[in-house]
Design brief:
The chain is an alpha/beta fold. The chain has two domains: 182 residues, Vaccinia Virus protein VP39 (Rossmann fold, 3-Layer(aba) Sandwich); 64 residues, no CATH class. A seven-stranded mixed sheet has the order 3-2-1-4-5-9-8. Helix 6 packs antiparallel against helix 7 and helix 8 packs antiparallel against helix 9. The longest helix is centred in the first third of the chain and has 14 residues.
Length: 268
């Protein structure tokens, strides 16, 4: 049972999620894509595994699955986000590492929204092997990834200028954080170099290019896990030995939605 002393912290976490906007939180069109895949590929009375505790995916599971299991290293988000979703009567939590194989539990479907962006590119083989291992024969994975095929911006000032000209009424994090982060994707790390990212954001603020509020907003994207972007061709090459790519669809209801395809994969 969860420690009662953590209730306030978990409540704060849930409230923070409610204020998060796409692309971190699934947009309406992202959810429509998942539902489209469910309509195309999901049979009734099947078991789902969800990478993490994304409340929107859990609500879909409550609607369509025979059981739902949320898989993550820590349980805090699972309990916190339970207040934000429709829970399946047979929903459970399994503490596990997404990069490890050998879990006893197997699923017909595995869903992950942005999960690939939380591992280094150097860990993609392990990550996809783990997803493959979690699936029953012929099972499906629906994964929203973050891609970095090309970045139309050569420096952070160009990103901010584009935001000012095209999306002045929207939060800068929602329109520009992905484009800024991609500028500091480090090939050696296989992920965004957050040390340089933080330093460059501070330089933008000190130069008067972004405001104090915008600086704080962009800094809120810093996480304890890697932030990575993958070239679409590379992702498909990673998938090829393990999965058949059935479909790939893009949302278009937020500024950087062209970087957020949702893949439908079937286990080979």
């Amino acid at each position: 049972m969860i420690d009662s002393k953590k209730i306030l912290t978990l409540d704060s976490c849930a409230k923070a999620w409610e204020n998060i906007k796409p692309p971190v939180r699934p947009s309406k069109q992202m959810l429509a894509i998942y539902e489209g895949y469910i309509g195309d590929y999901v049979s009734s009375n099947k078991d789902w595994g969800i990478l993490g505790s994304t409340p929107e995916l859990r609500s879909l599971g409550a609607k369509y699955a025979s059981s739902v299991c949320c898989l993550d290293l820590k349980h805090e988000h699972y309990y916190s986000f339970s207040t934000l979703c429709r829970q399946h009567p047979k929903e459970s939590f399994l503490q596990c590492n997404w990069l490890s194989t050998g879990q006893a539990e197997k699923f017909n479907y595995v869903l992950g929204d942005g999960s690939t962006s939380m591992v280094s590119l150097h860990q993609y083989d392990d990550f996809l092997n783990s997803i493959h291992d979690l699936l029953l024969p012929g099972g499906y994975a629906f994964l929203r990834i973050q891609i970095a095929n090309t970045n139309p911006f050569g420096n952070p000032s160009e990103v901010v200028a584009w935001h000012r000209a095209n999306h002045p009424s929207q939060p800068i994090f929602r329109t520009s954080s992905f484009y800024l982060q991609i500028l500091w994707q480090d090939a050696n790390l296989g992920s965004v170099n957050t040390e340089i990212y933080c330093r460059e954001l501070l330089a933008l603020f000190e130069a008067g290019i972004i405001t104090s509020d915008e600086y704080q907003e962009l800094m809120s994207s810093i996480t304890p896990y890697p932030i990575s972007y993958v070239e679409q061709e590379s992702f498909e090459a990673f998938c090829a030995p393990l999965f058949t790519i059935l479909d790939v669809r893009f949302p278009n209801d937020f500024a950087c939605s062209n970087l957020c395809p949702v893949y439908a994969l079937q286990k080979k």
